[in-house]
Amino acid sequence: MxxxxxxxxxxxxxxxxxxxxxxxxxxxxxxxxxxxxxTVALTVTIxxxxxxxxxxxxxxxxxxxxxxxxxxxxxxxVSRIVWTATDPANGFGNTEYREFSFSGGPWxxxxxxxxxxxxxxxxxGSVVSWNEVAVDKASEPEHPAPIVTLNxxxxxxxxxxxxxxxxxxxxxxxxxxxxxxxxxxxxxxxWHSISxxxxxxxxxxxxxxxxxxxxxxxxxx
Length: 221
What we know:
CATH class of the largest domain: Mainly Beta
Shape: globular
CATH architecture of the largest domain: Sandwich
Number of helices: 2
Strand order of the largest sheet: 6-7-4-10-11
Helix content: 25-40%
Structural class: alpha+beta
């Protein structure tokens, strides 16, 4: 436990991955560590080769956020994101933490992770830089940089989904096509029967009327 506590007390990502080549939300968990001063600023550096075209920050009451950009040829990339407390009283101490979030992209393709070197500034002017990257899984740097995990993009062809939708649609269409003739034939037969019955009733009525008229003539004569 003596070793676990210091390892956990650093700026870190919450572990939510983002998609390679896409846009996603990065959440950084920042605990206060100084017993003498409050955390009043956080600067996150986007490393070279990670060319985010845009970054939008989640507002934090009592704090401001600035997205700094850098020219890369004829384009621009996000180079740094700086959060600053508007007043030292809005900082937080060693029994608290803050969540600093931003949405940005596109994230690079072909990488499993990206380290985001971060500087944590305190109200007494001191700065702690979280900018070290472990050389292997077994090692733990003293000041590790937060790591954002990148997931490979899903297969955009969507063969299974496309075939499933096509099969469903085709099945529905086939069902409608086969059901329609039977329904039409039943409907036609019904109306044909009604027409015949109606004709017979009309003939019967005519015969009955003719018989009555003839009987009246015979009676009257």
